[in-house]
Amino acid sequence: MKNNIKIQTRNYGFYYGNTKVLADIDMDILKNSTTAIIGPSGCGKSTFIRTFNRMNDLIVNAKVAGEIKIDGIDIYKDNIDVVDLRKKVGMVFQRPNPFPKTIYENIVYGPRLHKRCTKQQLDNIVEVSLKKSALWDEVKNKLRGSAMELSGGQQQRLCIARVLAVDPEIILMDEPASSLDPISTQRIEDLIDELKENYTIIIVTHNMQQAARVSQKTAFLLTENIGEPAKLIEYDNTDKIFTNPSDKRTENYITGRFG
Amino acid sequence: MKRKNLIQKFWNYFLLFVTFIVVVFVLGIIIYVIIKGWPALSWEFITQKPAAGMREGGIFPAILGTLYLIIGTIIFSLPIGIFAAIYLNEYASKNRLTRIIRLSIVNVSGVPSVVFGLFGLGFFVIFLNFGKSILAGSLTLALLILPVIITATEEALKTVPNSYRQASLALGATKWQTITKITLPQALPGIITGSVIGIGRAAGETAPIIFTVAAFSQPNLPNSIFSQVMALPYHLFVLATQLPNAPEDMQWGTALVLLIMVLFFATIGTVVRTRSRLRRVNL
Ligand SMILES: Nc1ncnc2c1ncn2[C@@H]1O[C@H](COP(=O)(O)OP(=O)(O)OP(=O)(O)O)[C@@H](O)[C@H]1O
Ligand SMILES: [Mg+2]
Predict the structure, then answer these.
(1) Predicted confidence (pLDDT) at residue A5 exceeds the cutoff of 70
(2) How far apart are CA B223 and CA A3, in angstroms?
(3) Where are the alpha helices (DSSP H) in A12-102?
């Protein structure tokens, strides 16, 4: 069981300036599975997952408290190389944000940053990544066409392929389907289901059904009183959270959303 | 309802009219210069040195001088301006210091060019002992247009969506890689536009170069960056006001050549910009 844990947070808290937005989060996130983060808007879900690849470093005056370990190593220790961390922990954003370059260039962008590759290796990375993200058949004949001409759903799968191309171990997804139509959403969900075999996925979503469909574990964050930091109310197997939650507040939240 | 439509119509036509006036004036000036200057233009005019006390012959030394000054200005102002803008927009935190820096940049662009000339004379020509030279002139012109280039570059960088920067950083790019591979290429069209405007202004400035580089007459071609040169704007001034009986068509010819050179640089800028934009859209 122990070595099944990919990410571990202890006493985790987060500050924007003097405002503490998250507090006391202890969580063990399992390897090769999908963990969903749910909770009302503004409770700090994005803030929380952006700590795993230290994207929060970009915000001035933002501060992390407590411990976050990935593979047993505290990622906020001084000797951690953020570039290595972000290679290992990829991120898919809420709005598809391909670079205004070709489909091919979008995918090789990451690998090219990190090592010298031959043309053949790059071609190979492009094909493998696009196949993994279920986009290959749709774009294999227009790899040199602009990524901006793809549909929103295709763009988001391209962004996933772009992340896969750097060969991460963890993939963070912040509401990856919230700007997509139902069919595209379905495809992203299917994709997440496949990817969890080989990657550790953490997904933020407002859509309860989506959390129930794609995840094995679900964490519920909630700010109880305005001005206080949000806390981890319940963290358990997804089945349990959605059928028989232990906490009244969890039940209120998910039934409110369902109803 | 009817009244509203009428007012709407009035403003439409009024704005059209104002735009029309602007276009007429710009075109008018250009056409006038072409008509007046055309007769003076000849192979001899643009390739020969002045003769007969500059009342005959050509203006080649002045063309070359202005070309050197443009190139020198580009060399000094573009890198510094672009790096400064990158620092301000991508690195500097938004605090009092950067506000002061920005404010000074805006204010510097309001300083009359003759003051730059005086500064160039005092600092580059005399204090640094460059003498009246291409080097001193280029540096002075570069200072003059730095605010334009910094401001334009900063505006261009601001138009690049943050989501591109985030995507790049999240893939493990460093900040500098993100700037060189994503942000700058995206901002390039805007940077070019700003630079062309700045360089066009530098090419036509007279006051700063009188103090720092321009020679009344210097038929010998420059042989180093410490040479003094003739330059088109000053030569034009000399022909028009300092030389009694200078043929009028030589003045207009000189003006036309200056205009062509500036337009030439603007065209290069436009071509590069359009191509990079096409690349962005189509590829
Ligand atoms: N850069 C920032 N500076 C200061 N406060 C911030 C910043 N970003 C977010 N916050 C605050 O932190 C809290 C959590 O924000 P966050 O974006 O993490 O919430 P969220 O759960 O992702 O919300 P949503 O579901 O709407 O995306 C909010 O109260 C927000 O106002
Ligand atoms: Mg969010």
Answers:
(1) yes
(2) 74
(3) 45-50, 82-88
Helices (H), A36-174: 45-50, 82-88, 103-114, 119-132, 136-139, 152-164
Tens-place pLDDT, residues B166-193: 999 999 999 999 999 999 999 998 898 8
In the stretch 114-133 of chain A, residues with CB closer than 8 A to chain B read: 114
Q: In this structure, which residue's CA is closest to atom 1 in ligand 1?
A: A59
d(CA B257, CA A69): 69
Distance CA B36, CA A102 (A): 50
Token pair for B114: 């003759």
Residue A16 Cβ < 6 Å to ligand 1:
yes
Which A residues 160-189 touch B at CB under 8 Å? 162-163, 166
Q: How far is CA B68 from CA A162, A204, B74, B222, in A?
A: 46, 59, 10, 9
What pLDDT does A219 receive? Answer: 94
SS3 content of chain B, % helix, strand, coil (to 5): 80, 0, 20
Mutate which of A88, A101, A112, A129 to test chain B, going by most B C-beta atoms within 10 A?
A: A101
pLDDT tens, residue by residue, A6-50: 999 999 999 999 999 999 999 999 999 999 999 999 999 999 999
Copy the structure tokens of residue B199: 């360089």
Query: How far apart (Å, rounded) are the C-alpha atoms in residues A45 and A100?
Result: 28
Helix, strand counts (H, E) of chain A: 10, 10
State both tokens at B145.
């247009």
Count Cα atoms within 13 angstroms, Cβ side, for B128. Answer: 16
Q: Which residues contact A35 (CB under 8 A, 6 or more apart)?
A: A29, A200, A201, A202, A203, A215, A216, A217, A218, A219
Chain centroid to CA A62: 20
Interface contact flag, B283 A101, Cβ < 8 Å: yes
- Give chain B's domains with CATH numbers: 41-282 (1.10.3720.10)
Tokens linked to B36: 């007046």
- Span from the CA of A86 to the centroid of ligand 1 (angstroms): 21
- Euclidean distance between CA atoms B72 and B75, whole angstroms: 5
Cα separation, A86 vs B141, in Å, equals 45
CA distance A56 to chain B (A): 11
